[in-house]
Amino acid sequence: MNNPMNSIVTTGFPGGAQNGTSAPDKGKDGYRSESVSPATSAAASRLSRKRLLALETELSDLDWQILGTICRCRAILGKQVQRLYFTGRTSKNASTTAANRRLKSLSDLGLIAAVNRKVDCRSRGYVAYIYYLTEAGEHILQIHRHDPEIRKRNIEPSVATLAHTVSVAECYVLAVETCRKEDMKLTEIQLEPDCWRPYQGSYKSRILKPDLAIVTEKQDWMSHEEAWYELRWFIEVDLNTEDIQTIIGKCRRYYEYYKSDIEQRLHGDVFPLVAWIVKTETRKRSLIRHIRETFPQYPRIFAVILPEEFTDMLRDELEMEECICPL
C-alpha cells in the first residue's frame, strides 16, 4: 500500500467496503454486482499517472468538491449535485445547465461515469441517472489528497444497491440544505464507513453500522440569550427490502451499543436518536408496532419516519410522540 499502483482492490463502489442495512449484494470486501462497466474501464485505462498529475493542476476547486462528494456518497444523482453546488444561478434552468455542463466535463475527462441504466429512487419519487467515480477519478483524488495510491477495479453496482446509496445521499443533501437556514448549523455529517461505531458486544467485538451520523445545532429563539442547542442522529434508510425481523436484529445491536455507554461518555450523556426512514405509512406503523412489542420498557431511542418528515425532524419541528418507540 505504500507504493503507487501496488495493489488492486475490487469494490462495488469507489471508496471501499460499506454496509447499509437495506443494501443487498454485500460481500466481505464491499458491494458486488453483475459486471464491469466497459465505458468506465476504457476511460480509466486511458489515463496514466502522468496524465492525472497534469489534470490535477487543471481542475478547479469546484471540481474537487464535486469529486470529493461523489467519493463520500459513492454514487449521487446529477440533481443532487445541482442542489449542493449550483443553487446561486439566476434560474433553475441556468442551475441545471451549469450542473450538467460541469458533470459532462468531468465525465469527458474520464473521472466520473454515469450508470448506464435508470434507477427508481423511491425515497424522493423520481428516476434519474447516477454518477460515480471511475478508477481514474478515485486515483486522482488519492494523488490530490496524498493518500496511498491503491488501484481499485470499479464494478457497476446493482439497481437495488444504487437505490439505497442514492437514498442515503438524499439524506446527506437534505441535511446540507436544511442547515443553510440562518438558525441551523450542520456541525458534523458522517457517511459510511466514518459513521461506524466499534464496541464490545456479547462475547465479541462488534461494529454498529448506521447509514449516516448527523449532528446539528439549532438556535433557541425562546432563550433570551439566543443560545444554540445540539441534536444528534443515527440515520437508517429502509427501502422495504429487509424483513422486519432483520431490522429488529439491528435494533438489538443499537441497544447493545447504547448499553456500552461509549456515545454518552463522549457527548455529555447524550445518545443519538436512531431514525428509521421508511417509504410508506404501512411500513412505518408495522415497524413501530414491532419495536414496541419487542422492546417494552426499553429506552426510547428510535423514531420511525417517512421521507417527507425528515427535514422537519432535523429542524426539531416534527411531532415525535407518534413515531418515537418503544413506548
Features:
single chain; 327 residues; alpha+beta; Arc Repressor Mutant, subunit A; 2 domains; 6-stranded mixed sheet; 3-stranded antiparallel sheet; 11 helices; 17 strands; globular; disordered N terminus
What secondary-structure arrangement, pairings included, does this model have?
Layout: E1 8-11, E2 26-27, E3 30-31, H1 38-45, H2 49-58, H3 61-73, E4 76-77, H4 78-85, H5 92-108, E5 112-114, E6 119-121, E7 126-128, E8 130-133, H6 135-145, E9 151-154, H7 159-178, E10 184-191, E11 197-200, E12 205-208, E13 212-219, E14 228-237, H8 244-260, H9 262-266, E15 273-277, H10 281-294, E16 302-305, H11 310-314, E17 324-325
Parallel strand pairs: 1-9, 14-15, 15-16
Antiparallel strand pairs: 2-3, 4-8, 5-8, 6-7, 10-13, 11-12, 13-14, 16-17
Characterise the protein shown here.
This protein has 327 residues and is of the alpha+beta class. The chain folds into two domains: 8-157, Arc Repressor Mutant, subunit A, CATH 1.10.10; 179-325. The chain is 39% helix and 22% strand. It has helices spanning 38-45, 49-58, 61-73, 78-85, 92-108, 135-145, 159-178, 244-260, 262-266, 281-294, 310-314, and strands at residues 8-11, 26-27, 30-31, 76-77, 112-114, 119-121, 126-128, 130-133, 151-154, 184-191, 197-200, 205-208, 212-219, 228-237, 273-277, 302-305, 324-325. The strands form six sheets. A six-stranded mixed beta sheet has the order 10-13-14-15-16-17, sandwiched between helices. It has a three-stranded antiparallel beta sheet with strand order 4-8-5. Strands 1-9 form a two-stranded parallel ribbon. Strand 11 and strand 12 (205-208) form a beta hairpin. The protein is globular, with a radius of gyration of 21 Å. 36% of the residues are buried.
